[in-house]
Specification:
By secondary structure, this protein is mainly alpha-helical. The chain has one domain. The protein has five helices and no strands. The longest helix is centred in the C-terminal third of the chain and has 30 residues. The radius of gyration is 25 Å and the shape is flat. It starts with a helix and ends with a helix. The relative contact order is 0.12. About 5% of the residues have low confidence.
Length: 127
């Protein structure tokens, strides 16, 4: 009797785990369409890291990244002083955060347009 109970609980636990793993978010996403859109958009400024390729950045994003690097260098210079001005460092950190936010928002816009674009239009843009 104990053996049957243990085997039954083991089977029940296995089936529960298998079912919950497949429906982790409660519903299945249409990833096939998303994969096709991203594959078709490889020639444009969309995220290519999914396919292992380096993503092409826009001029604005490159400019923002250079500004971020310059501001990080400015922070390092301020930290070398004997009297550290924490207000200036905080101000520069806030500026860096704004530049990161701009870059992130731009990527969100590009992904949104790519995922909402029908596959036919994605092929037209590539050519």
């Amino acid at each position: 009797m104990k053996k049957i109970l243990i085997v039954g609980m083991l089977a029940l636990g296995t089936m529960t785990f298998a079912n919950s793993h497949e429906n982790q978010k409660g519903h299945k996403r249409n990833t096939r369409h998303e994969e096709c859109v991203m594959k078709n958009m490889e020639g444009n400024n969309f995220n290519k890291s999914m396919s292992g390729k380096k993503r092409i950045k826009s001029k604005e994003e490159i400019k923002n990244n250079i500004e971020i690097q310059e501001k990080k260098i400015a922070i390092k210079k301020l930290m070398l002083n004997e009297n550290i001005e924490w207000n200036q460092i905080e101000k520069i950190n806030l500026e860096i955060a704004q530049l990161h936010a701009k870059n992130k928002t731009e990527m969100m816009k590009l992904r949104h347009t790519a995922l909402n674009m029908p596959p036919v239009e994605a092929n037209k843009i590539q050519n």
